[in-house]
Amino acid sequence: MCQNPNPSSSPTPNSNPNANPSPNPNPNPSERGEPKKPAEVHDVARRLSAGDAAARVEAAREVRRLARASSRARSAFAVAAVVEPLVAMLPSPDPAAREAALLALLNLAVRNQR
């Protein structure tokens, strides 16, 4: 029987450097797409209401991204009253604003069947 003259160089079954790490079973809120804290939700709501056109579009996109991933985020945005400013963006002459608002509203409505 032949033995490996350099046992430290032999790979162990779990030492594949190209293996993907196992996913975190308890990701932090930002990894789940949830707002990090209530202040983040209120900041997005403020930008939707008081920002310039570009800031409102970016805020609507952020609502969409966060609402898509988390029912907790959808609830937080409903409490923060983001629906009204998003609806107000729908008749905008800017197609990007209309699209961002519509997609954010659709993601807020998902799984909120009442």
UniProtKB/TrEMBL annotation:
Bias-annotated ranges (Low complexity): 1-19
Biased composition (Basic and acidic residues): 31-41
Coiled-coil residue spans: none
Region (Disordered): 1-41
Alphabetized Gene3D superfamilies for the sequence: Leucine-rich Repeat Variant
Protein name as catalogued: Uncharacterized protein
Organism expressing this protein natively: Ananas comosus var. bracteatus
